[in-house]
Each structure stands twice: as C-alpha cells, then as structure tokens.
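Table S2 (continued). Query chain:
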Amino acid sequence: MNAMKRAAAVLSALAALFVAGCSSGGGDAAPPDHGSSSHPDDRKGNGMRGMTLPSWNTDDYSSPQAGIYLKQIASAGARWVVFTPTWYQDKVTDSAIRTTEETADDSSLRHIIGLAHSAGLKTMIKPHIDLVKGGDRAEIRPRDPDAWFGAYERCITHYADLATATGVEQFAVGTELAGTSQDGDHWGEVVAAVRKHYKGPLTYAANYDEYKKIPFWRDLDVIGIDAYWPLGDKATTDTARLRQAWQPIAEELAAFSAKQGRKILFTEAGYVSQKGSTTAPYSWTVSKRDGDAEQAAAYEALLATFNGKPWWAGVCWWMWDDWPDAGETAKRLAYTPHGKSAEKVLRRWWGHG
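Corresponding output:
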C-alpha cells in the first residue's frame, strides 16, 4: 500500500525449505487443511498472523503511543508486526533516493523493534520507496537504472544491517516497485547484497497485479503479495459471495506456489471500513459511507478461504491505528480494524475472541 498519506486516493491499484517460524505463525501449530471450513474450532489460523504498523514521521516509532499500539496488536491475536521505514525520490525518473522528515528515524525503529519483542511479537522490516509529491511507486522507472539500483542497494542494505543488529525475524527486499521489478539482473544483485548483511528469511512484496512478472522469486525464501484483488463490482457484506470471488484467485496462487517452490505470504491485505471497500481494496477513498460490516465480511472471507492451505504462509494486515494527528482518513472509515467488527473477526480466528 503506497504510504504517501497526503495522496489519500486510489493507491497502486511448496518449498523444501521455508521460513523458520513463518509457516507456524510464531510457534502456533498449523491446523489440518480444512479447505472451506469456517467452524470456530478450526480458527487458529495457520501461517503468519501479522499486522502492519506504518510510520509517517521521523519519531512515530518512538512516540508514547508506540507501546500502546503494540500491546493492542498482540491482544488482538497477532504474532507478528511489520514496520515500514520509507525513503523518497522526487520524480519517477530520478536516481536519487533520500530520507525526509517522514522517514522513521533509525533510533525510533530500533526502539519499536525492542518494544515489539518485549510484547512477544516477531518482526518484519518492509522498507518502502515513495514519491515526495505523492503518486504510485509502481510508476518509478529511473532514467539511469544502474544509478538507481546503486542508491537502492545502499538504502536496503542499511535496513538489512539494522535488522541484523536488532534481531528482526524476516525482511522484505522491496515493496511494489513494479516499474523496476522485471529487471532480474539488478534485483538479483540486490538480493545477493542483502544476504551478505542479513541471514534471515527474505521476501519481496509484489502488488497483486505484479507478482507473476517477478523473475527473482527463486532467489528469495517466500513469495510476498500485497493482496488487494477487487472481489466484485458492487458493495457486499455477503461472506459467501466474497469467498466465491476468492476461489479462482486461490487456485491460481496454489499453482504459482507449486511452480516456484515457495509458499505465498500476503505481505499486505486490507480493507477500509467504507461501503464498497471490497470493490477496490487498494483505495483509501471508496466512499464516505460507513462500511464496518463490509470490512468485517472481507476479513472473514479472506481468512476462511486461505486458512489451512499448505502453500499459504499467512497475512500481514494493512494496517493498525494511525498515529495521533497524522491520519487524513477518519478512523471510522480507515483501514484499521481496531475497535470495529473486523477486530472481532481477527480475535475469533486468532484465538483471542
């Protein structure tokens, strides 16, 4: 999900070895494959039980609210939390990438990783690259690829070093960079460089319409997909209908996982609590009408569809609460499930209901 909050509009629309701890959701035994089962006794949720806590300012992760959010996330049944430090570039054709006042400070990132571990949560760092004036990071197509990838490698290995130093359990080498991700040679070099700095499991967070084009999945440990597939052209709270919409997608993913010899992790998935959210899960601004029930139905449908699938590595939901005074979307309409019916769905599936 494009992290540029000021652009709050539509965003970028089985391996023999697998990630230690990821397939077990942080120590939780995976249940048998019940397929379409949705009985409460089956709702222990295999795979990563993750929640994303993005940052929008330098000191978000060191703010007093950080520890509160992490306790809430753990209380909802999550076992993983994802952090998203973001660097920026001015234009899609530029080669320079830099920090800004919206980039999480390294000390704040170290601080919140420590807090997460103290709260019993495993962690993943998933760095983002965004555009200073807003826009879709998938449109980044540098005029000088060699220079851009050199700058990107410096950025990503910086966080790989930080991940190693802080005991981060998983790391993403990139997020939704569809304008560059077909460049297998350069990305192969990026992955190789990251492995010199970080020895844990690696993924890349491909957008749902990007993942089939990635040439370097076999260089990674798990396939990451930001799962914002539209599930219909009309608003609905009918969970059965949403699950039916997921079925052909699930069949495609199962086949892709088998072909690549890697499990698939939903590095992001989420729905605003707005009427019509299932028609455009990637948009912050589907409507101004309350969609609490539709958001909850979407959470239920995703978990009921994929829970127990042997090739599925879990989900990292986008996102928990916004930081005080940072949100441009009212909480009642935003992606957060906190305090909404969707949180009750998570608690049932994740054993905290």
